[in-house]
């Protein structure tokens, strides 16, 4: 048949970087679960989820009746121990009391003083203060609610330590990612904008339920108003060993494609014809 004109382009060798894509969740690097040291009834909680807080700011307080009563009781016991010891020392000087009695009352007085110190310490921690600048992520109790000592009342994200995206990778992808690898991150909340990230932690063991490995990626807001829970689309650029250099052609050169199999036409310059060749994409 008649010859048909064709346009040719050279096949070239180029450095090809593979990419691992995943979905993750944005969160402050550090999250602190705050609680009262002692149990009691909540008097007030001064913040709600989403509020920004400053280091040292009082966030929640217990009703003081029970705590103050414990301090007063311990103070009375310590004062009684002091009086009993002073009386025993006087009786010992008059040879009415024994040395053993004086020693026992000395021990009792020391124990009462330590109990007073413990009660005063507990009273100081009947309120919750922000450990650092951050944002309240969760409020887990309300006023007039009875809480136990150590029961989380607030969850605060320490924003001064930065933000991270936590994602889960299958084992075949996790082993190809290294600490320090660059990442490109996009959020639906910030359309058309991408954020640079860096891998800062790779899980050393798989999640027993999902079989995936958690990867943590440090990301800077760059002026954006980050909030916990934003869904992130992550692309990690990696280089597979032995596959860094590949032959590349324009996608329009593929005349047929079925999965990894494709067909291109290669110019035979000597005969001036283009021959069909099957390739692996």
Describe the protein in words.
This protein is α+β, with helices and mostly antiparallel strands and 281 residues long. The chain is built from three helices and 17 strands. The strands form four sheets. The protein has a six-stranded antiparallel barrel. The longest helix has 30 residues, at 64-93. The model has no long low-confidence stretch (mean pLDDT 86).
Task: Spell out the helices and strands N to C.
Answer: EEEEEHHEEEEHEEEEEEEE
Oligomer: single chain
Shape: rod-shaped
Distance between termini? 31 Å
Trace the largest sheet across and list its strands.
Answer: 2-9-12-11-10-13
What topology does this entry show?
Blueprint lengths: L11 E4 L2 E18 L4 E6 L6 E2 L4 E5 L1 H30 L5 H26 L2 E3 L4 E6 L6 E2 L4 E18 L1 H4 L7 E6 L6 E9 L10 E7 L11 E8 L6 E4 L7 E3 L2 E8 L4 E8 L1
Antiparallel strand pairs: 1-14, 2-9, 2-13, 3-5, 3-8, 4-7, 5-6, 7-9, 9-12, 10-11, 10-13, 11-12, 15-16, 16-17
How is this structure best summarized?
The protein has 281 residues and is an alpha+beta fold. The chain is built from three helices and 17 strands. The chain starts with 11 loop residues before the first strand and ends with a strand.
């Amino acid at each position: 048949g008649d010859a048909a004109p064709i346009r040719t382009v050279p096949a070239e060798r180029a450095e090809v970087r593979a990419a691992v894509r995943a979905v993750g969740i944005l969160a402050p690097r550090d999250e602190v679960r705050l609680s009262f040291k002692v149990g009691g009834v909540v008097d007030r909680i001064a913040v709600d989820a989403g509020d920004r807080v400053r280091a040292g700011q009082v966030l929640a307080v217990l009703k003081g009746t029970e705590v103050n009563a414990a301090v007063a009781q311990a103070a009375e016991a310590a004062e009684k121990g002091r009086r009993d010891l002073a009386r025993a020392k006087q009786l010992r000087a008059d040879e009415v009391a024994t040395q053993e009695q004086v020693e026992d009352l000395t021990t009792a007085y020391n124990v009462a003083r330590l109990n007073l110190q413990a009660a005063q310490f507990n009273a100081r921690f009947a309120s919750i203060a922000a450990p650092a600048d951050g944002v309240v992520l969760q409020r887990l109790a309300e006023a007039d609610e009875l809480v136990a000592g150590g029961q989380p009342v607030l969850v605060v994200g320490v924003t001064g330590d930065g933000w991270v995206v936590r994602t889960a990778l299958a084992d075949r992808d996790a082993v190809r990612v290294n600490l320090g690898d660059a990442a490109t991150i996009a959020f639906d909340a910030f359309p058309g904008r991408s954020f640079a990230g860096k891998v800062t932690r790779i899980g050393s063991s798989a999640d027993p339920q999902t079989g995936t490995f958690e990867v943590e990626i440090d990301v800077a807001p760059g002026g954006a108003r980050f909030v916990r829970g934003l869904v992130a689309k992550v692309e990690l650029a990696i280089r597979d060993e032995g596959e860094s250099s590949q032959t590349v052609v324009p996608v329009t050169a593929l005349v047929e494609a079925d999965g990894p199999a494709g067909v291109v036409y290669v110019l035979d310059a000597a005969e001036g014809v283009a021959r069909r060749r099957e390739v692996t994409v």
